[in-house]
Amino acid sequence: MPVSCSAYGCKNRRTILSKHRGITFHQFPKDPGLRKAWILAFRRLDFKPSNKTVLCSDHFTQADFDRTGQTVRLREGVIPSVFASFPNHLKRKRPIKTRSTKTSRRALEPIKDPVPAPKCSEPPKPAVSDHHYALDPTQLSDAQARIEELERQLRNAKDRERRQKQVLKSLLERLEERGMLSEAIEIELLQESVGVQV
């Protein structure tokens, strides 16, 4: 049975042609919170996806994909956001309500910084998001790449440590078999290894 995208008005199906065009299909997440966010992004009344329901890659931004391996995967926690086939009434954004209380209006006022910021020659780039605390998308992708690199380095360091411990353990066993390891040296080595682990 051919697999087709379940988004409103999307006609993409899993075929050889779609594979050559680079279209990938992704199942709904198993995490209940993320699954609910995907369903809300769909904007389909009473939509209940099954375990086999899929969404094509046309409904995600390029930053949502992890293309480091052989297979194209979605990054963790992404929500579909591109729905070109939606009718106009579903594309409209809801108007943002303005703050009504004195405290919430005061929260929007800029804070006077006692330490003046250094003046830069070029004006700051406007943020794409409507939140002043949000990261610029280029900074976000750089940060994600840096996190992935650090996680890879951490895995490699743990693997090296594990291999070194195995080598040390085998050396100690060989020394003990040959009778070249005294109790005093063994106790001292054990204390040092415990001190490193703490």
What distinguishing features does this structure have?
two-stranded antiparallel sheet; 4 strands; 6 helices
Q: How would you describe what is shown here?
A:
The protein is mostly helical. The protein has two domains: 1-93, no CATH class; 136-197. Helix content is 42%, strand content 5%. A hairpin with a 6-residue loop joins β3 (65-66) and β4 (73-74). The model has no long low-confidence stretch (mean pLDDT 76).
Short description:
The chain is mainly alpha-helical and 198 residues long. Helices cover 42% and strands 5% of the residues.
Helix-strand layout with pairing:
Layout lengths: L15 H5 L4 E3 L4 H11 L11 E3 L8 E2 L6 E2 L13 H4 L10 H7 L28 H41 L5 H15 L1
Antiparallel strand pairs: 1-2, 3-4
The overall pLDDT average reads 76
Strand order of the largest sheet: 1-2
What is the H/E order? HEHEEEHHHH
Question: What structural class do helix, strand and pairing data support?
Answer: mainly alpha
Give the N-to-C terminal Cα separation: 56 Å
Please report the number of helical segments.
6
Share of residues in helices: 40-55%
Domain THAP-type: 1-83
Coiled coil: 140-178
Protein name: THAP-type domain-containing protein
Keywords: Coiled coil, DNA-binding, Metal-binding, Zinc, Zinc-finger
